[in-house]
Amino acid sequence: MLDDLLRIEREFNQALDAAGLDPDAVEAIRVRFLGRKAELTGIMKKLGALSKEERPAAGKAINVLKQKVAARLQEAADQAGEAQRTASLAGERVDVTLPPRMPWTGSVHPTTHARRELETIFRGLGYSVESGPEVEDDFHNFQALNMPPEHPARDGADTFYLDGGLLLRTHTSPVQIRTMKDRKPPLKMICPGRVYRRDWDATHLPMFHQIEALVVDEGITMGDLKGTMDVVWKRYFGSEVETRLRPAYFPFVEPGCEYDISCQVCGGDGCRICKQSGWIELGGAGMVHPAVFQAAGVDPERYTGFAFGLGIDRIAMMKYGIDDLRLLMENDTRFLGQFPL
Amino acid sequence: MLVSCNWLRELCPVDATPERLAAALTARGLTVDAVDADTAPGDVVLDIDIPANRPDCLGHFGIAREVAAAFGVQLSPPRALPESIVPSDELAGLVSVTIEDPGLCARYTARLVRRVSIGPSPAHVADRLIACGLRPINNVVDISNIVLLETGHPIHTFDYRLVNQGRIVVRCAGEAMPFTTLDQVERKLTPEMLVIADDRRPVALAGVMGGADSEIGNDTTDVLIEAAWFDPVSIRRTARRLGLPTDASHRFERGMDKDGVLAAQGLAVQLLEEIAGGQAVPGMIDCYPAPGARETLELRYQRVQRLLGYDPGAEAIHEALDALQLAPREAGEGRVEVQVPSYRVDLVYEADLVEEVARHLGLDRLPSTLPLTVAPTENETVHPLAERTRNVLAGLGFQEAFNYSMLPEGADDRWVPKGTLPALALSNPIAEQLGFLRRSILPGLLQSADLNLRRGNRDLRLFEIGRVFLPAGAGDQRPDETLRAGLAWSGLAEPRHWSRDDRPVDMVDLSGAVAGALSHLQPGLAIREERSETPGFHPGQATSFRGADGRELATAGRLHPELLARFDLPQDLFLAEIDLDAVLAAAGPGLEYQPIPKVPAVSRDLSLVLGEGAGYRQVVDLLSSRPAPATARFEAVDRYVGSHIAAGETALTIRVTLEPYDRTLTDEETERYRLDLIEALESSDLPVKLRA
Ligand SMILES: [Zn+2]
């Protein structure tokens, strides 16, 4: 009897070793050694052939073997299952470096990027964003801005005219006039938009984009203009940027000035970009001219105001290092694609 | 303007280097663009940008005044003034001046220098002219130029013999007539142009250019000198109309000094005697019908602080005004009164004096403060959909393009509805291709697509947001400017990928982009598609998207094959245009929460065959007109065209989903509804049948 048990155990071990991690083979071994027809199941019946003294030990040995077989089978089944799951996951592995299935990537124009960044800065300072017509009349584009007919300052803005006397606005300043006429001070606004000048060469396009800022209230000073520009240009170009005002003439401001920022390329030491001056001119500015206030129905004794303007396309070119103006209007997708949303 | 440093130092004794001069002038608003030490031997030339309001600085003397103020030095005394402004009997016998229109010529002075011998100028005169960018011609012409460059005041010299009887009449041309200017060009004068005439004919175009037949020649001996003041607007009109901007007209149209004629005459006569060997007839004819009074202007000290944001103090304000030769005088009550010199035509307002103070003290003295103003922002006029649309379209994979608002003639004719008024024409376009204001965004995008396809950029999705200009009728009425978004799509429908085959874009893709954009811009807005008649599109592949009230919100379509061929495009192009004003006006339900159903939805599929002339939208309109036991949604889940059905027919499976809120529908209710839908289809006029 004990010999039989030893043999069965040996056969079980051999079979289990041979089965490896194959769950089906392990299951077959379970049927063979623990199933209803298994020798180990039938061997209990042979106990009767043993002596009364031998019977308890033999019975115990059978049970020990049964438990041992069951435990090892469970262990083998677990291992086989685990191995199968691992193998199955391994089979589902993908090359994570393969190009993904991307959606189309859209973009907005670099000039839009620059405009939005400036709008965000101004909105953060409490400015509203205003707009007005691009086809203007002489009053709003010139006369209300202290440029009567035949004023020499009209030379600087070569104007497109429509039959009938209307014109394409040469700056966004008419929006200032319209907003002042429509609303009472205090006023704190910017007006971005398309403007048109009859000028077309390597450094001029007949259509470009401006932003002007206007603040009108009691007690607005040129110091406020300086401080506002300091904040705006530091936020836009970086905290190391300095702003400088130089006296200049624009009919709609008095005192008037042009303003420069310290050159970003050389840090103010002088280079080719800033023509060795260390400064880059950005635009015009000043205190709203009393004649402009009068034309717009604002009391120049009670209110003062500052205004400044700039070309957005130029700011965008500076910011993104674009060196050819024509790129802005060609719409080559290889250019546009460089400015994702 | 080119300014000689040597000349400047003669007028104002400063020893500052040219670089320091340049920096000081720039800081005062006379921007020095270049300091040139190479062109003129022994001299340094400054290129100064003179602002339009400072005609007094259009000569070396005016610049010298600014230098004197900047460096706190005294100007050299004037070189020469006429000894007398009264005509001698001798002069009165030789020359007479009549001003017919004192509004256009406020002052006219004349002097006569005889026995002049014409010849080349001495080197020191020629060098000055060359340094300032002028070419020496002969001593008399050169002297006119020297006077112009030093005093800033243009003078004109006539050959006295050629002015009939020495009679000068300042008058309008009176009639259209030809006139040959001294550049030997015959010009067409119009009646209102101001001329200098003798008693027979014009001899000069006042303030612009002299006439050829009274010009100084090699045999001239007697020189009649004109120094006058002409009306800026009149001179500007004449110069512009004739396309003849000159050094003289440039100055007169900015406003010359009525008293500047004296210095100009004085210098001219002195030089004609010194250099050209002439002898002046004593005295001067000064025709000055209404001499201007000295202008005064008041400045409140407190106004300086209110505009600049800092208080320089009364003393500093006085010093500044004094340095600028404005003769400040206390006027009591915190005011100072200044005498405006006749050459400072720019000083009119109190604010002009604040600017004088500000620039004299230096703009670097301004404090850096922020306005405390809080202003309402709720009435912004910027278009509420513009930026959203940019984000939505870029989010859908389109790239923003910019095109001109102007187009070639006729470029948008196929992109506007019938009956749209013709595009507005520019009266002075800069190029033929930019002659008319666009009425559609699409021609520009078509051009951009063309450029990209020619450059080999075969996959393109462009958008542009901008205004179009719809004429309102009358010529002087501003056009209706509406905001549009245009789309152009060509090449692949989806990015090329190793996991799938390339698929070219089609109408369904384009319409999806448009409908997708609209669903973001006006959430929940009901949109109906119809065929579009826009002639630029393929007649069978053009959609009009309309709001509930029938107003067109957008059009989309495939480019008409004729246009494709005309542009010689290598592949199909799909275009769409969204009217953002219409979308804004179509105010949909907006963002509003709808309760989520508590019970599951049920669906039924209807397999239909649509005959020719029946469209998905018509079928769904019919189905949704039937009463439903719960909210019903319809969608197309399958479409088939092919050999299993007749030609011209389309098999379409429409899924209807019923979404009850909190009561589960019974099978009977659902089935009754389905049967009702089938009944409705079968009894309708639409060529639709159930698929077997
Ligand atoms: Zn630099």
UniProtKB/TrEMBL annotation, chain B:
Quaternary structure note: Tetramer of two alpha and two beta subunits.
Domain of life (superkingdom): Bacteria
Domain B5: 292-368
Reaction catalysed by this enzyme: tRNA(Phe) + L-phenylalanine + ATP = L-phenylalanyl-tRNA(Phe) + AMP + diphosphate + H(+)
Name of the coding gene: pheT
GO cellular component: phenylalanine-tRNA ligase complex
Family under the similarity heading: Belongs to the phenylalanyl-tRNA synthetase beta subunit family. Type 1 subfamily.
UniProt: Mg(2+) binding residues: D346, D352, E355, E356
UniProt protein name: Phenylalanine--tRNA ligase beta subunit
Main location: cytoplasm
Keywords tagged on the record: Aminoacyl-tRNA synthetase, ATP-binding, Cytoplasm, Ligase, Magnesium, Metal-binding, Nucleotide-binding, Protein biosynthesis
NCBIfam families: pheT_bact
InterPro entries in UniProt: aa-tRNA-synth_II/BPL/LPL (IPR045864), B3/B4_tRNA-bd (IPR005146), DNA-bd_dom_put_sf (IPR009061), Fdx_antiC-bd (IPR005121), Fdx_antiC-bd_sf (IPR036690), Phe-tRNA-ligase_IIc_bsu (IPR045060), Phe-tRNA-ligase_IIc_bsu_bact (IPR004532), Phe-tRNA_synthase-like_B3/B4 (IPR020825)
Residue intervals of the FDX-ACB domain: 597-691
GO molecular function terms listed in the Swiss-Prot or TrEMBL record: ATP binding; magnesium ion binding; phenylalanine-tRNA ligase activity; RNA binding
Record SUPFAM superfamilies: Anticodon-binding domain of PheRS, Class II aaRS and biotin synthetases, PheT/TilS domain, Putative DNA-binding domain
Required cofactor(s): Mg(2+)
EC number annotated for this UniProt entry: 6.1.1.20
Any one Pfam family match given in the protein's UniProt record, by short name: tRNA_synthFbeta
Record GO biological process: phenylalanyl-tRNA aminoacylation
Lineage: Bacteria, Pseudomonadati, Acidobacteriota, Candidatus Polarisedimenticolia, Candidatus Polarisedimenticolales
Cofactor binding note: Binds 2 magnesium ions per tetramer.
Subcellular location(s) of the protein: Cytoplasm
